[in-house]
Amino acid sequence: MDAAERRLARVAAHLVPSSFPVTPAAAPPLVPAPTAASSSSSSSSSPAGDSYRRVHGEVSAEPPEWRAATDESGKEFVDIIYEKAVNEGIAKITINRPDRRNAFRPLTVKELMRAFNDARDDSSIGVIILTGKGTKAFCSGGDQALRDSDGYVDFDSFGRLNVLDLQVQIRRLPKPVVAMVAGYAVGGGHVLHMVCDITIAADNAIFGQTGPKVGSFDAGYGSSIMSRLVGPKRAREMWFLSRFYTAAEADKMGLVNTVVPLAELEQETVKWCRQILRNSPMAIRVLKSALNAADDGHAGLQELGGNATLIFYGTEEAKEGKNAYMERRRPDFSKFPRKP
Ligand SMILES: CC(C)(COP(=O)(O)OP(=O)(O)OC[C@H]1O[C@@H](n2cnc3c(N)ncnc32)[C@H](O)[C@@H]1OP(=O)(O)O)[C@@H](O)C(=O)NCCC(=O)NCCSC(=O)c1cc(O)c2ccccc2c1O
């Protein structure tokens, strides 16, 4: 086989659906997938005996040891709990207002932003879990008791809608954010789980938008991301009717990645995080920005482009440019290939 034939064969192999063996002899033995918590769970769909699984294996299901964390200000958190797993790259941020079903006020959002910022800057952290305290709610949205004519008011004399800044922060954060949802994820709390990269739902989770019932709406990410996730018709249904949906219904709609028994929620979430952490951090970083790029327009391109620059700075070609400037000489790029 010459090079052209080999190339053609490689391309042809990619065009065959993965479940369709190229030759009967090449087909691996099909064994039942190990128990997946739900139909859409990902890790268990490849045959147990293949080399991929032998090489990459299962991740530990041991509970992590969580240690309280703070940011550079050292200021204690009031409305959230911020923790990092000892010796592994997972941060966990918990909205801690269970008596209000983890509704957020401006202070809650400010603290969430501080914690996310710290987790972003900490190079030992590769994935961040966002959750709510207790089993009754992930988050019930903005604290309606504090809603005024210009937003939510706690310690200021003016209102804020600062959860919108938090949404942008999560979307642009170059590390995966995993929503771990037990109980209600409704209103602005539902939007928060949607802007996360992955959602692991407990079987008691309830999802929905309440805005049109309480005189509110999220016409930003709360609408556009939802439409992408569940499709335009379902998104209209979710907003116009403001119904609540079970975890199983949300799974069917593509709103969540998997549904697990409540008692296994954190264990399963941590397993997903550990699986992400085994993979190339730069691949994950670039993929997150690539998956958002088209929808995010100029901001998406800017982020993806920033990743290209980040990677380019590590090359000899880029270093030659910088060194030449520092040495006051003309750069010599002649040794760098102009690749096809
Ligand atoms: C979440 C519920 C369905 C839970 O019902 P359940 O029967 O289990 O519990 P209770 O209703 O008895 O609640 C217990 C306790 O918590 C208080 N509480 C719950 N949610 C909130 C809340 N969001 N704000 C304030 N307080 C809340 C409740 O009053 C009880 O207190 P007690 O003192 O009586 O014990 C149900 O609670 C529920 O439907 N909650 C309201 C959900 C909701 O409508 N959220 C707001 C949507 S609007 C929004 O979130 C929003 C925020 C933004 O910042 C935006 C910014 C920009 C654009 C849009 C935004 C936006 O839409």
TrEMBL record:
The reaction(s) this protein catalyses: 2-succinylbenzoyl-CoA + H(+) = 1,4-dihydroxy-2-naphthoyl-CoA + H2O
Coiled coil, from the record: none
Source taxon at top rank: Eukaryota
GO BP: any one term: menaquinone biosynthetic process
Record-listed E.C. numbers: 4.1.3.36
Biased composition (Low complexity): 33-48
A Pfam family it matches: ECH_1
Sequence similarity: Belongs to the enoyl-CoA hydratase/isomerase family.
UniProt protein name: 1,4-dihydroxy-2-naphthoyl-CoA synthase
Lineage of the organism: Eukaryota, Viridiplantae, Streptophyta, Embryophyta, Tracheophyta
